[in-house]
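SAMPLE LOG
Freezer: B-3
Tube label: C17
Construct: single chain, 395 aa
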Amino acid sequence: MNNQDQLDIPFDDPRRHAMANKSTWISVAVNTLLTLLQIAAGFIAHSQSLIADGMHSLSDLVCDFLVLVASHHSKDPADEGHPYGHGRVETAASFVLGAILAATGGAIMAAAAIKLQNIEHLPPVAPLALWVALIALVAKEGLFRYMLHVGERLRSPMLIANAWHARSDAASSLVVAIGIGANLMGFVYADSVAAIVVGFMIVRMGIVFAWDAFQELIDAGLSIEEVDSIRQTLIDTSGVVNLHELRTRRMAHRALVDAHILVDPRISVSEGHSIAERARGRILKSHPAVSDVLVHVDPEDDIDHDNNAERMPARESLLMHLAPLLVGLPEPQRVVFHYINGKVEAEVYLPHVFFENGSMLVEAEAKVLARLTGNQYFSAVSLNCVVAEDLLERR
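STRUCTURE (predicted):
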């Protein structure tokens, strides 16, 4: 295998669906043959553990079809009803897969325990069972290695879970082979004990898979290491002063991120948007597992900022409250509001022709400053002169 074959397959590569389907269909073929062989040989050879292992293979077969259905639907693009895509179909399939494993293992353990209570009536196990158990062991280990390789290249938790399901079957086949071997050596109870061990292994694996899927369904976040790496990428973005409220959640083999970045409160809206887009692009480029990033721009690092903004009146009302502060001055050509520390700083642009010299502007600012004392909404008002050509360019 060359180095190129060992590289991960990008999430947007059209080969993903074909590779996932191929590996699953191979698993279907292997599990179908093993299920028929193990159950038939188990009945013929009177091996309860081999029959249990055959039921395990049958549960694998059912899970393979779940993976095929989930893989088919999860590749669908986002739509009106599923704006974040259909990735959680894989998660739901993984949860069902785990539940099936746990139920199957529990049933196997119960059946074997009942047989142990009547051990004197158990028929001897034929050598055929041992050969079939060894064949199943080799087949399942090979299937595990192949499916794990594909799952890791595609970075698909569902395929990786299905691969480890095959490994659990390989381990169970090993236990079955040991149990049958011990039975053939005269330890009559060994076959039933092996069946109980296999059942326990299946239950444990099922619980692990179901729990991991459940964590994703309740929007558990990424690991601390992954979050810290994303945080550093955002902070290192030019124009980002600080960061707070960074949140993550998984969506199948991808992740969603949203964050509040702090920027200079006096820059323009368009510049703030540009900084946010650069921050978003850096995350998507540096963290391939992240499928989308929502960046909210804040002018100050204050958890109460949103509440302060809600208490402030809208622009139209602020202009009305600003008017008494500008009595005796011409109508502003342009007004810019900065919402900072629970109040508003206003930049007022007046016609240049109104001021004959700089002293008139200083006098006007002094009058406005005197009127600001105790104002409910405004903390500062700055007066600026602008010529007609500048106004035309701004518009």
